[in-house]
Each structure stands twice: as C-alpha cells, then as structure tokens.
Amino acid sequence: MSQIFIPEVRSEGYKHLARGRNGMITCGPQMAALAQAFNTIAFRRCKLLVSQYTYLGNFPTPSSTFFARFYCSPLVKDVYVVMLIGDAGAPAGLGSYFWTVDGVNQVTKDIANSASASAAPGDFYTQASRFVDGSGNSLAAGVHDVHCTLSATAAITGFAIVEVATPYADTSEALSPDVYSVGSPILGRDLTAMTNRAWLLHRQQGTHHIHWTSNTVGATQTGTTYKNILDGTTTGWAATAAGFWTIPYRQAAQTGTTVPVTMWVYADDGGGAANTGRVRFVNSAGVIATITGIGAAGYYTATGTLDPALVDDLVIIEHSNATGGELVNTYGAGMYAFDT
Q1: Does residue 234 sit in the same domain as residue 261?
Q2: pTM (2 decimals)?
C-alpha cells in the first residue's frame, strides 16, 4: 500500500488557502513589497526613445528631415521632444521647424534669425514639445513614426525624444499593495496580476538599442556591394568598425536564451522599379537580420535576436541594392527590444 504524506496545516491564516498551497502561507508583507517594486519600475522612470546630436556648426541644411521610429511601452503618459537649436545665419525670413508624428503635423515653431550662424554654446537654446495624435491626445502604447522638417535658417544641433510614464498616483494602473496586506485573503487572481505585470514589463518596456538618423540627406550606395551607412566602408564587421554598441546583457527571460529585437529603417531604392534595396544588421556572430524589398521611401522592418550573455555587442548597419547599378538611400535606422 502506498502512503501519501500531507503536511500539517498551520493554525494561522485562512486554512483553505493553506490547504490550497500545500500547507504554505503566502507572505502578505513580502507580496506588498513586490507590488511596490513593480509599480516603481512601471511608473518612476523616463525612457529615452531617440536621440541625435552633432557638433556646433555642423548644421543640417533645410529642408533636411530627421526620421525615427520608436516603441512606447504600455504605461506611457506622454512623449516629449527636447531640442538644442540655433540658426544658420544669413537672415532670409524667420527660421522654423515642425515635427510630423504618424502623419499628423505638430505645431510649427520659430527660430530667431541672427546675422551670423550660431557658433558657440551661448548661441543656442532649447525648446520642448509634446507629441500628440490627430485628436490632440497623448500618444498611445505601440509603434510611432516621426520626422522633423526644417525651413529657412533653422539649425538643429541635437534632440532627444523621451517617454514619460503614467503618474505613480494613478492607482487605476497600479498593483495595489493593500490587496496583500495582513489579514486580507490573497487570491489566485492577485498572484496572477503580480506575475502578469512582471511579464508585461519584461516584454514591452525594452531598451531602444540603436537610434540613428542622418543629419544631412542620408547615406547612399549603388550596386550589390554592402557599405557601412556611417562611413561607407565595405570591409564588413570588425571590432573597430563604425557601428552602434548594444547592451543585451541579461535582457532575456529567466529561462530564455535570446533577446528578441525589432530592426527598422527609413529608406528608398532611389526611384528604381525593382524594389530590391536592402539593409542588414550585423554583429560578431554574423547577420542578425536583413531587411529586403525596399522600394518607395518608407519604413521597413525585420526581427532578430541578440545574445543576453554579452555585456555589450557591437552592431554595424550596411546597405546595398540586390540589382546591379541600382541605388539604395538610407535616412534612418534603429533597433529596439520587443517581445510580443
């Protein structure tokens, strides 16, 4: 005859919970502390989505346009752009710029003219703008495409786009620590809410590893040979190659072996009809992903993975056209961690 050992049910707490957990009592104070930790991660942060800076006097020429794509996490409250701006001199009408977000033009802002181009830190100032959708509301969670158009003598030395999370005081989006207080029954749904929040944070608040946009008219390559978009070299990946440092270390799930990433480019094939422009992302292990079928100017994407065992990982971006003699123009590129 077989015997099954059933541990003694403890005398404190709710006995049906104790039996349901095989004699173990859920620790309320520890669960409450864990809820507070998840809330802190979700709400008390400011996330950099895109940044681009150049040196003083290296102004893009109006009407050059910066292109970017980013992913807003589930608890986004607002998205702001902060710009370091000046002017290119030779007044010929007031300089100005405006951003376009998902096809919606934002408010046009002016830049004062001066007789000479801004050349020193004291000649520059900052402006901040809040991005909105077509109804004037804050941007929602998910993917957004933006670009900035300059006019007259507007000069931009740099900008940063940041995401601000839902305020910590918004309890409708928070895990309530009171649920886990002493004397309260901690139900299965409460434990599920805890694990769901942790999983959501892991999947959809990932790092934006790469965010590049040309400060002139983009990078161009003719023919089938791949060229680095930063310096035009054709030597491929090397430890000293011009590229972007990613930090995938420990960004996988607890039992995962890879970091899922989405790669994007804003590019075109130079007006060719073959739709054979291509852009690839390469690290020390080889090609992470190749974006193919680039034709008309627009955003194109691919997915791949990084290695979470690496503290850092150099990634280069190269482009070419699969058709000899045809062009590919790349204006912006990026990579962000995202797991559906």
Answers
A1: yes
A2: 0.80
Task: Give the chain's domain count.
Answer: 3
Q: What is the CATH number of the domain that holds 143?
A: 2.60.120.260
Residue whose pair of structure tokens reads 């009809």 in the numeric block: 273
Residue 115 pLDDT more than 70? yes
pLDDT, tens digit (0-9, with 9 covering 90-100), for 284-309: 999 999 999 999 999 999 999 999 88
173 is a domain residue: no
Regarding whether 258 and 199 lie in a shared domain, the answer is no
Residues of the domain holding 39: 15-44+180-204
For the chain, the residue count is 340
10: in domain: no
| Structure confidence by residue, pLDDT tens digits, 166-196 | 776 566 667 777 777 666 677 778 878 877 7
Whether residue 2 is contained in a domain is answered as: no
| CA proximity to 266, closest of 174, 125, 143, 153 | 143
pLDDT in tens, 127-171: 899 999 999 999 998 999 999 888 877 778 889 999 988 776 566
User: Do residues 159 and 193 share a domain?
Assistant: no
